[in-house]
Amino acid sequence: MTKPDPIAQAAEDMFAAWQVLAFRLPMLAMQSTPSRRKEAQRMVTEKAEAAFDGALAWQRYWALTSLELWSKPLAPNALQEAADAWAAPGRKTLRANARRLSRRKGR
């Protein structure tokens, strides 16, 4: 399996972030309704969950890596792999939000 291009991933993430902001900022500026409050609460909850999941992924990566240190040296790209593991939950949430919000906006 080939590893995804980090520049392409960053570009996709930046576009998804722009999409999410474009859909959510006007909603937050408008008068509060139950659905807008629910979406605002979801925003905060998702950020906290992604941060927690990222921290767990970071720790899992280093825990598994430390178990292998006796049999092989630390990989030169270990820090990058750990950062990728940390960012993956947030990236997944960001892209899912961009898809969900763009579908909802089109209705």
Question: What does this protein look like?
Answer:
- The chain has 107 residues and is mainly α.
SSE-based structural type: mainly alpha
Assembly of the depicted chains: single chain
The count of helical stretches stands at 3
Order of helices and strands: HHH
Q: What integer is the average pLDDT?
A: 87
Q: Which strand-content bin applies to the residues? A: under 5%
Helix content, binned percent = over 70%
Biggest beta sheet summary = none
- Please mark out the parts with pLDDT under 50 across 5 or more consecutive residues, or reply none: none
Q: Quote the distance from N terminus to C terminus.
A: 37 Å
Query: What shape does the CA trace take?
Result: elongated
**Number of β-strand runs:** 0
The rounded Rg comes to 18 Å
Provide a short characterization of the protein structure.
This protein has 3 helices and no strands. It is mainly α and 107 residues long.
Keyphrases for this structure?
elongated
Topology:
Layout: H1 6-29, H2 34-68, H3 78-105
Helix pairs in contact: 1-3, 2-3
